[in-house]
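Re: that backbone. C-alpha coordinates:
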Protein backbone atom coordinates (compact mmCIF):
# COMPACT_ATOMS: atom_id res chain seq x y z
CA UNK A 1 0.00 0.00 0.00
CA UNK A 2 2.76 2.42 0.89
CA UNK A 3 4.75 1.83 -2.32
CA UNK A 4 1.64 2.19 -4.47
CA UNK A 5 0.73 5.47 -2.81
CA UNK A 6 4.24 6.88 -3.30
CA UNK A 7 4.30 5.76 -6.93
CA UNK A 8 0.86 7.27 -7.60
CA UNK A 9 1.89 10.51 -5.91
CA UNK A 10 5.09 10.75 -7.96
CA UNK A 11 3.20 10.16 -11.22
CA UNK A 12 0.39 12.63 -10.48
CA UNK A 13 2.49 15.32 -8.82
CA UNK A 14 5.71 15.28 -10.77
CA UNK A 15 8.14 17.92 -9.64
CA UNK A 16 9.36 19.57 -12.80
CA UNK A 17 12.59 21.46 -12.71
CA UNK A 18 12.63 24.78 -14.53
CA UNK A 19 15.79 26.31 -15.87
CA UNK A 20 15.54 29.42 -13.70
CA UNK A 21 18.67 31.23 -12.68
CA UNK A 22 18.78 34.18 -10.33
CA UNK A 23 21.47 36.83 -10.51
CA UNK A 24 22.83 38.81 -7.58
CA UNK A 25 26.29 40.31 -8.16
CA UNK A 26 27.44 43.11 -5.86
CA UNK A 27 30.68 44.89 -6.69
CA UNK A 28 32.75 47.80 -5.45
CA UNK A 29 35.44 49.77 -7.24
CA UNK A 30 37.62 52.64 -6.12
CA UNK A 31 40.02 54.71 -8.16
CA UNK A 32 41.93 57.93 -7.83
CA UNK A 33 43.13 60.23 -10.56
CA UNK A 34 44.70 63.65 -10.62
CA UNK A 35 43.94 66.77 -12.58
CA UNK A 36 46.54 69.53 -12.71
CA UNK A 37 44.29 72.13 -14.36
CA UNK A 38 40.76 71.53 -13.12
CA UNK A 39 39.67 75.12 -13.79
CA UNK A 40 41.20 75.18 -17.31
CA UNK A 41 42.91 78.49 -16.60
CA UNK A 42 46.47 79.72 -17.27
CA UNK A 43 47.06 80.21 -13.50
CA UNK A 44 47.01 76.64 -12.29
CA UNK A 45 45.91 75.74 -8.78
CA UNK A 46 47.62 72.90 -6.90
CA UNK A 47 47.08 69.41 -8.21
CA UNK A 48 43.60 68.08 -7.49
CA UNK A 49 43.18 64.42 -6.67
CA UNK A 50 39.78 63.04 -7.58
CA UNK A 51 38.64 59.88 -5.79
CA UNK A 52 35.77 57.83 -7.18
CA UNK A 53 34.03 55.25 -4.99
CA UNK A 54 31.54 53.10 -6.90
CA UNK A 55 29.34 50.47 -5.27
CA UNK A 56 27.28 48.56 -7.83
CA UNK A 57 24.69 45.81 -7.87
CA UNK A 58 23.47 43.60 -10.70
CA UNK A 59 20.38 41.52 -10.07
CA UNK A 60 17.70 39.70 -12.03
CA UNK A 61 16.62 36.30 -13.25
CA UNK A 62 17.11 34.24 -16.39
CA UNK A 63 14.48 31.87 -17.76
CA UNK A 64 14.31 29.59 -20.77
CA UNK A 65 12.12 32.04 -22.67
CA UNK A 66 13.02 35.39 -21.13
CA UNK A 67 15.14 37.32 -18.71
CA UNK A 68 15.08 40.38 -16.51
CA UNK A 69 18.28 42.18 -15.53
CA UNK A 70 18.86 45.39 -13.64
CA UNK A 71 22.09 47.23 -12.85
CA UNK A 72 22.46 49.91 -10.21
CA UNK A 73 25.61 51.95 -9.72
CA UNK A 74 26.38 54.92 -7.48
CA UNK A 75 29.51 57.00 -8.01
CA UNK A 76 30.75 59.15 -5.16
CA UNK A 77 33.19 61.75 -6.54
CA UNK A 78 35.49 63.31 -3.94
CA UNK A 79 37.71 66.26 -4.94
CA UNK A 80 40.77 66.86 -2.75
CA UNK A 81 41.22 70.65 -3.03
CA UNK A 82 37.69 71.47 -4.22
CA UNK A 83 35.28 69.90 -1.74
CA UNK A 84 32.41 72.03 -3.08
CA UNK A 85 32.56 69.88 -6.24
CA UNK A 86 31.92 66.58 -4.41
CA UNK A 87 29.01 64.80 -6.08
CA UNK A 88 27.00 61.61 -6.03
CA UNK A 89 25.97 60.11 -9.36
CA UNK A 90 23.42 57.31 -9.75
CA UNK A 91 22.85 55.07 -12.75
CA UNK A 92 20.04 52.51 -13.07
CA UNK A 93 19.63 50.27 -16.14
CA UNK A 94 16.94 47.64 -16.59
CA UNK A 95 16.30 45.21 -19.43
CA UNK A 96 13.52 42.70 -19.96
CA UNK A 97 13.36 40.21 -22.81
CA UNK A 98 10.79 37.59 -23.76
CA UNK A 99 11.10 35.05 -26.57
CA UNK A 100 8.27 32.80 -27.72
CA UNK A 101 8.10 30.55 -30.76
CA UNK A 102 7.83 33.41 -33.29
CA UNK A 103 7.33 36.43 -31.05
CA UNK A 104 10.02 38.52 -29.32
CA UNK A 105 9.62 41.45 -26.97
CA UNK A 106 12.34 43.56 -25.34
CA UNK A 107 12.06 46.51 -23.02
CA UNK A 108 15.05 48.66 -22.07
CA UNK A 109 15.05 51.46 -19.53
CA UNK A 110 17.64 53.80 -18.07
CA UNK A 111 17.63 56.50 -15.41
CA UNK A 112 20.83 58.32 -14.52
CA UNK A 113 21.90 61.42 -12.64
CA UNK A 114 25.42 62.46 -13.59
CA UNK A 115 27.50 65.57 -13.03
CA UNK A 116 29.80 67.66 -15.15
CA UNK A 117 32.01 70.54 -14.09
CA UNK A 118 31.68 74.01 -15.58
CA UNK A 119 33.08 77.43 -14.71
CA UNK A 120 31.08 80.60 -14.14
CA UNK A 121 31.51 84.06 -12.67
CA UNK A 122 30.72 84.32 -8.96
CA UNK A 123 28.81 87.60 -9.37
CA UNK A 124 28.04 89.97 -12.21
CA UNK A 125 31.09 92.09 -12.95
CA UNK A 126 33.31 90.46 -10.30
CA UNK A 127 35.72 88.80 -12.73
CA UNK A 128 36.20 85.89 -10.30
CA UNK A 129 35.59 82.43 -11.73
CA UNK A 130 34.36 79.49 -9.72
CA UNK A 131 33.78 75.83 -10.56
CA UNK A 132 30.32 74.34 -10.16
CA UNK A 133 28.72 70.98 -10.79
CA UNK A 134 25.83 70.86 -13.23
CA UNK A 135 23.75 67.73 -12.80
CA UNK A 136 22.20 66.04 -15.82
CA UNK A 137 19.23 63.73 -15.36
CA UNK A 138 18.56 61.45 -18.30
CA UNK A 139 15.80 58.92 -18.79
CA UNK A 140 15.28 56.52 -21.66
CA UNK A 141 12.64 53.94 -22.44
CA UNK A 142 12.59 51.70 -25.52
CA UNK A 143 10.28 48.75 -26.19
CA UNK A 144 10.58 46.65 -29.33
CA UNK A 145 8.43 43.89 -30.79
CA UNK A 146 9.33 41.28 -33.35
CA UNK A 147 7.49 38.53 -35.19
CA UNK A 148 9.17 35.88 -37.33
CA UNK A 149 7.32 35.59 -40.62
CA UNK A 150 9.64 32.91 -41.96
CA UNK A 151 12.98 31.51 -40.93
CA UNK A 152 14.80 34.35 -42.69
CA UNK A 153 12.26 37.21 -42.45
CA UNK A 154 11.25 39.07 -39.31
CA UNK A 155 8.83 41.94 -38.89
CA UNK A 156 10.13 44.24 -36.16
CA UNK A 157 8.97 47.53 -34.71
CA UNK A 158 10.21 49.63 -31.84
CA UNK A 159 9.98 52.94 -30.07
CA UNK A 160 12.56 55.01 -28.23
CA UNK A 161 11.98 57.83 -25.75
CA UNK A 162 14.82 59.96 -24.36
CA UNK A 163 14.54 62.83 -21.89
CA UNK A 164 17.42 64.95 -20.59
CA UNK A 165 17.19 67.69 -17.96
CA UNK A 166 19.91 69.95 -16.58
CA UNK A 167 19.74 71.25 -13.02
CA UNK A 168 20.88 74.85 -12.74
CA UNK A 169 20.14 75.31 -9.02
CA UNK A 170 23.88 75.19 -8.23
CA UNK A 171 24.69 78.10 -10.51
CA UNK A 172 25.29 81.50 -8.96
CA UNK A 173 23.99 83.70 -11.75
CA UNK A 174 21.79 81.15 -13.56
CA UNK A 175 23.58 81.66 -16.85
CA UNK A 176 23.15 85.11 -18.37
CA UNK A 177 19.91 85.95 -16.58
CA UNK A 178 21.68 88.53 -14.42
CA UNK A 179 23.53 90.07 -17.38
CA UNK A 180 22.99 93.80 -17.86
CA UNK A 181 24.63 96.09 -20.38
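Recovered sequence:
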Amino acid sequence: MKKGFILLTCICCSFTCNGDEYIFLPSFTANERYEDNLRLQPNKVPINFITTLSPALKFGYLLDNGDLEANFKANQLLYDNESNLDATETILDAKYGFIADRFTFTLDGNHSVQSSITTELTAVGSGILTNINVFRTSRSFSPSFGYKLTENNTLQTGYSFNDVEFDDSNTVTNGLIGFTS
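Residues 2-12 form the longest helix (11 residues). The chain has one domain: 22-167.
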